[in-house]
């Protein structure tokens, strides 16, 4: 059935995979007036960022659980709020129970409450926590503007790279010389080293250090796992969790999805005959 339907139309672009990136690319192409076909092998779109009804009546984030890496610029340009994007603020942001103890660590948006919680385990950590958060947020603030720009292309002539180099210079400048060594360490060291430098208590190190390894097949002792810490703050700044109600093209007997997106229309159906 789909073969015939696809043959009937012609497309400017066909995107294989209806995950977060495929859908974003498709939406931008459609916005630019292109006719786009998205092919998804599952019965539901969203990829690792999917919200899915695993138990009837209950919807879960199956993998990605925070709206963090989706750039605000994309949300704005694709007018996602108009299409149903809603934020659910994540507060408390983490709860770390301790095995064989009734103690636990609860962190949220309120710094003085956080410090009280942390002080149960270490007074020094409670004092250092706001300093650590400030350090990470300085780095995030400096680097965030770079995320919406093209990466530096070293194949280009210096003349063409000057504007990008100037942006990079302006980005790094506010970090100041004093922070450069710490920044280098954060980007290259294992998260365990970063945590040991700032904190004493295992429960806090485990809670914050998780960000170094989440979504990675890496241990906290692997080099480079410190670098996702700024990503945590990008998340925390927004502290959002989303459950996007968006369209579901779900038929239990037909686990394949076909979407046709153009500037003015959006249609989709599931079929077992995509291939
Ligand atoms: C456990 C986990 C937790 C995460 N947590 C977060 C988080 O909290 N916040 C965050 O911002 N990011 C998080 N991420 C990362 C985020 O989920 C990914 O960056 C994002 O989903 C990548 O999107 P994608 O479209 O590139 O790929 P995917 O999401 O993997 O989508 C690929 C899609 O293509 C489909 N596909 C593949 N092959 C074919 C084929 N041959 N034909 C048709 N369809 C095909 C797949 O079924 C899938 O739907 C997490 C990732 C994981 C694994």
Automatic annotation (TrEMBL):
Signal peptide: none annotated. Residues 222-250 are annotated as: Disordered. Pfam families: NAD_binding_8. Belongs to the carotenoid/retinoid oxidoreductase family. This is Amine oxidase domain-containing protein.
């Amino acid at each position: 059935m789909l073969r015939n339907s696809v043959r009937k139309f012609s497309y400017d672009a066909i995107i294989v995979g209806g995950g977060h990136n495929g859908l974003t690319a498709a939406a931008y192409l459609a916005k630019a007036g292109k006719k786009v076909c998205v092919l998804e092998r599952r019965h539901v779109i969203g990829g690792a960022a999917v919200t899915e009804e695993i138990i009837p009546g209950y919807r879960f984030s199956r993998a990605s659980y925070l709206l963090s890496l989706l750039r605000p610029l994309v949300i704005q340009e694709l007018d996602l709020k108009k299409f149903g994007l809603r934020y659910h603020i994540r507060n408390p942001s983490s709860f770390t129970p301790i095995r064989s103890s009734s103690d636990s660590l609860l962190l949220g948006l309120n710094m003085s409450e956080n410090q009280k919680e942390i002080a149960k385990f270490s007074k020094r950590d409670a004092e250092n926590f706001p300093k650590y958060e400030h350090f990470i947020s300085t780095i995030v603030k400096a680097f965030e503007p770079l995320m919406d720009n093209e990466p530096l292309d070293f194949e280009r002539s210096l003349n063409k790279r000057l504007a990008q180099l100037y942006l990079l210079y302006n980005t790094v400048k506010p970090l100041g010389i004093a922070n450069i060594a710490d920044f280098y360490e954060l980007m290259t060291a294992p998260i365990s080293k970063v945590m040991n430098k700032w904190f004493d208590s295992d429960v806090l190190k485990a809670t914050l250090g998780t960000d170094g390894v989440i979504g990675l097949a890496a241990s906290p002792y692997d080099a480079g796992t410190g670098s996702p810490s700024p990503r945590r703050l990008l998340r925390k700044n927004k502290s959002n969790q989303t459950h996007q109600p968006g369209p579901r093209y779900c038929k239990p007997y037909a686990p394949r999805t076909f979407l046709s997106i153009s500037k003015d229309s959006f249609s989709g159906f599931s079929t077992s005959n995509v291939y």
